[in-house]
User: Fold Protein-lysine N-methyltransferase EFM6 from Thamnidium elegans.
Amino acid sequence: MNTKNTDLAEYGDFEQREQEVTAHIGKIEIKGLTEPILLSQDLSSGCGGKIWECTQIILEYLVWKREQSQHTLFKDQTIVEIGAGTGLVGLAVAKLCPDIKQMVITDQINMMSLMQENIKLNLLDALVKAKVLNWGEKIEQPELLNADVILASDCIYHEEAFPILVDTFLSLTTNEKTVIYLAYRKRRNADKRFFQLAKKKFEFVEVMEDPKREEYTRQGMRLFIVKKKAMK
Ligand SMILES: C[S@@+](CC[C@H](N)C(=O)[O-])C[C@H]1O[C@@H](n2cnc3c(N)ncnc32)[C@H](O)[C@@H]1O
Assistant:
């Protein structure tokens, strides 16, 4: 994945990166997509106003997986992205898989205008919606419930939010077939508390088939497919 104004490989901790970012619109080239994603980034909206490293690994994997699936990946499926930030992952997946039923990119209220701008920049208004989804809050919007797929890129970074993040995964997986694609970058030892908590309710399967896996695990990133444990 190439970004015109940024170099993903150079990203350090969020605190460092926050100072690096100036608001701009750039072109994000993703191998496997016929056209770049136009992306407005602006950290004045919040920490998600910048693309984070895990976007690269989840997108490259999904491009590869779609090829493996003879281009049937996510066909007719409803997808919700949580903590979407700029919305890059959801937007790129909607471009990659135009035969999905619906994509809803979600985040807190402060990210809405950036996500809406990015939907418009990519002419994806018909397929992609932006909605507020605050982790830990009761989810009532019907378009967020019973999704086939949940996408979560770089959402494990704030220890205080681990319990509400797990609650949100639980609320979004009322449908037992829902699959969560979770891209994670290790930052702190405390991250293990998220996994301890989440593993009480969910099965985590690390994606081993990804041709890029070796490369990104060296940088502390991992990709999981997560499903709710069956009720006993
Ligand atoms: C590290 S950023 C990742 C953004 C994007 N997924 C990416 O990979 O570039 C984490 C995102 O989670 C969102 N977030 C943090 N706490 C949240 C909460 N309590 N409810 C909803 N979203 C939250 C932030 O606004 C931010 O957009």
